Amino acid sequence: MSAPTRAPIAITMGDPAGIGPEIIVRLACTPRPGETPLLVVGDTQRLRDMADHLGLALTLFPIEHPNELEGHDVTPGRLAVLPAGEPLPTDLPYGQVDARAGAAAYAYVSRAIDFALDGAISAIVTAPLNKAAMAAAGIQYPGHTEILADRAGTDDFGMMLANDELRVMLVSIHLSLRQAIDAVTPERELRAIRLAARACHAYGIEHPRIAVAGLNPHAGEGGLFGGEDEAIIAPAIARAREEGIDASGPWPGDTVFMNARRGHFDAVVAQYHDQGLIPVKYLGVENGVNITVGLPFVRTSVDHGTAFDIAGTGHADPSSLFYALKQAEAMVRSGAGT
Ligand SMILES: NC(=O)C1=CN([C@@H]2O[C@H](COP(=O)(O)OP(=O)(O)OC[C@H]3O[C@@H](n4cnc5c(N)ncnc54)[C@H](O)[C@@H]3O)[C@@H](O)[C@H]2O)C=CC1
Ligand SMILES: NCC(=O)COP(=O)(O)O
């Protein structure tokens, strides 16, 4: 079900031991151009303690359902918090893998998904969760994306990382490198190309040019360095072209992002997680966003993780959260969804 554009956007607090509480408090205290009311699915005490630690004046008020936001003052410095899961211990340490924090992060995103599927919120923006903490809590999902897709009941989904210069769709997400190579299949290639085109349409690009990165050095160099590029990736590109998608490649993975950045392509399909994410993150985590393509609702995320090395110190940069929120608002406004 799609939500009205004025329905609130829910930000999930992510792992309470990470930088999620800090970047959310910083965002909530900063005037921003967006017009959509916000709520946080998370823990009020954790956010209050963080605001005090940062010396920021933030009024937190509890709600039980997004529609309770109607009529509330939601100007900067005020934030609605919707609880989920068990209340956190007040002495939960920052910067450590903790099963209680992993369970809480899962509870926050689960509750937000309930509201998104009901149409009570217009989008979910996620602060980072820690995959090891989630696993310590016995939760089997490797990340948000897989939770979201499972709850939405779809296999036709993908992870796209984007900034102002690059858009990158992954063929596989959270797999070991060995498994990722095995995941280079005709079906996954074609799906990633289609999803990349669909994501570009949501950006308003009518005829997107999709570059597909090769798997092997120099896209296999004519078979000298591996056969997957010619045997699997090239035929999938040909299929996509038969469907009318302007797909090309396989292009050598070491130069395709440079050419996309120069404006030769609208999106790049990357063969595995790090091939696609390194170029985006190298340009700076400040301006990156992670978008789940293929859901029945909008979901964006920061492109960085829980940053345990700085969590609780007051040194987290909230820029990617601002960017993810701006992107979610734009997607809701355009009605393009994912
Ligand atoms: N959207 C999500 O939920 C994501 C979650 N993760 C998870 O986060 C955990 C930690 O991942 P790492 O690989 O260590 O990456 P990370 O992004 O948490 O940290 C990498 C480096 O970047 C710095 N950094 C990251 N975000 C920052 C910010 N906003 N301001 C200032 N410095 C920042 C950190 O201090 C660290 O030095 C893992 O469990 C990972 O799976 C990673 C990426 C996205
Ligand atoms: N490297 C991106 C990442 O790990 C984010 O995953 P997800 O939690 O958004 O699925």
UniProtKB/TrEMBL annotation:
The keyword Transmembrane helix does not apply. One of its GO terms (cellular component) is cytoplasm. It comes from Kushneria indalinina DSM 14324. InterPro entries: PdxA, PdxA_fam. This is 4-hydroxythreonine-4-phosphate dehydrogenase. Substrate binds at residues 144-145, 281, 290, 299. It is found in: Cytoplasm. The gene is pdxA. Keywords: Cobalt, Cytoplasm, Magnesium, Metal-binding, NAD, NADP, Oxidoreductase, Pyridoxine biosynthesis, Zinc. Belongs to the PdxA family. Homodimer. One of its GO terms (biological process) is pyridoxal phosphate biosynthetic process. Its EC number is 1.1.1.262. Its cofactor is Zn(2+); Mg(2+); Co(2+). It comes from the Bacteria. Pathway: Cofactor biosynthesis; pyridoxine 5'-phosphate biosynthesis; pyridoxine 5'-phosphate from D-erythrose 4-phosphate: step 4/5.
